[in-house]
Fold this sequence. Notes:
Layout: H1 2-21, H2 49-58, H3 79-83, E1 90-91, E2 99-104, E3 117-121, E4 131-132, E5 134-135, E6 138-139, E7 147-152, E8 159-164
Antiparallel strand pairs: 1-4, 2-3, 2-7, 5-6, 7-8
Amino acid sequence: MVYPTFILVLLLGLGGLALGLVEFKVWIEPQSPDTSSLPGIESSAAPDLEKVQQLSSALPKPSAELPSPTASPPKPLDPVALAAHQGTLRVSNFTQHPVRVALLARQQGSKSYGEPAHWDFAPMEGGSQGLILSLPQGNLTLEKGDIIVAFAQDGSRLYWGPYVVGETPSPMWNQKVGEW
Length: 180
């Protein structure tokens, strides 16, 4: 009884393989549209060339001079004024990547930098309001010359920066709340 069942299963398997090797293709070709039922364009509906020329001659001619712009371009931010600002740093991760924000803070009274610090953000962490960053030993205050860089941690090779506080357009100073 085992042999007939085994032979039946074997034949069904071979039949399935044979059907898998056969390719079926179905093409659906669009029919050519029947243009005889479409309305035709009559020549009387086309504008008369003489009438168009008469109307165009009645229109005023454009002047060759262009008006000069009255608004002046926005003034760039004064780096000296920005350098005087000290404040906290608010960060949001608006990307779909996990991001690390690194800070290299300049030591007060010298041109050397202190111990670097970093913060990790999940995708979309911080939302529209952002998170204020702090250090283990207390509050974080950014000053002129501090360097900030951010980079994705998922292997996508994305990075932002380096940004120098008070010298590059980012981070931007928020006058209302005293934050970068």
